[in-house]
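User: Second chain of the day. Same drill as before.
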Amino acid sequence: MRKLSYYVGMSIDGFIAAPDGTYDFYPVSESLVKDFFIAEYPECLPTHVRQHLGVDDLGNKHFDTIIQGRGSYDAALAAGITSPFKHLRQYVVSASVDPAIDPDVEVVSGDVVAKVRELKREDGLGIYLAGGAHLAAQLLEEIDELVVKLYPMVIGAGVPMFSAEFGTFAFELDSTRTFDNGTIVLTYSKKS
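Assistant: Same format as last time:
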């Protein structure tokens, strides 16, 4: 069975984006880009970024499918991009996105938990949950892994990692990696 991984960047105080949904203020260093984004998770870079960096020929290492919410997808739409991850099977969870927006994008407007369970039963690499907080909360019980890029910043307010009701969900720390700009990548597995 494939696993669902929530791969996300976050401030020290637990926010994945500013109150307006932007996240371009997070510090990126050459080491983080080369040694993590490109070397470890090239499939998590949008197609146009991969092309800009000259790494669009790299194979997928962890994921062959992405599922994202409307807010995450809107960032691509704002740039005029309807298929931001051409190198992955793309699902956008939304009741308002036109299902015919792009032939490479499948819009999920129904039961997202059922859809993720269906995807998990298929053969292939893992499923990349790209956010946001509301979608992550809906899928919390289905998340098998957290890959958290913890940026050395406090932003005070914004979009939390999860917008969920109180509950406890245990995860085990699998690994940590520290980068030259102070970013720490924490990888957790769902505790059985």
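The chain has five helices and ten strands.

User: Great, on to the next one.
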